[in-house]
Amino acid sequence: MTETSPLDTAHAAMEADPQDDAARLRFYDRLADAELFLLLEGEAEGDRITPRVFPVEEHRYVLAFDREERLTRFAEGPAAYAGLSGRSVVQLLAAQGLGLGLNLEVAPSAMLLPPEGVTWLAETLGVSPEELAAKPAEITPPRGLPEAVLTALDAKLATASGLARRAYLAGVAYEDGRRGHLLGFLGTVPGAEPALAAAVREALVFSGIEAGALDVGFLRDSDPLAGALARHGLRFDLSEPEAFSGPSAPGMDPDRPPKLK
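RE: above sequence
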């Protein structure tokens, strides 16, 4: 029997109290960040994959598992699969009007997410943050942010390994009089800004906080604002990416996402 996975834990919390919206959102956040193994009809052909589709009542479902051994157990032996992030899976399935069967028959997190649920999650993940041009006038220690936001940020930034060196969360007052909170990233890898901004937005959405409650900035170490953030802000260190020397499964390269046949 495989060990309990983060998805199992989040699913159990959601099922324990169906009225707890925060637990439900945390589960979908974990699902989006999870590495999933998508069951295929056969081996991938270049960048094209053909998922195995199962009709259930009036819908069609594609099956995915959060452990390779769970997929093997369901298939009763080795089977072709594509390794994808949960967000990539729901975006692919939403475009085809397909539902998602997660960990069916092999884990306590087994569930069917119908096509409308897949579409909702894909749309939630697909919204781009707004770009602002306001100039900070004062940096202060962060105050008044819900604990759920801090927990969600900590978990989300843990998935952003290698995209930046660190981040500081602080209160901010802008020259136009607006006040709020700012998460400033230092040592950002060029081109990683959209992914980091999207990760912060997801942390807010899935913690139940309206988007726009937290601004994001990308700074050089020499920027005077970076020094103010370091003095007053709450520090988050982003972990280094894990080295991986073996071959990747189809779909695991984010720069070459697969296409459904």
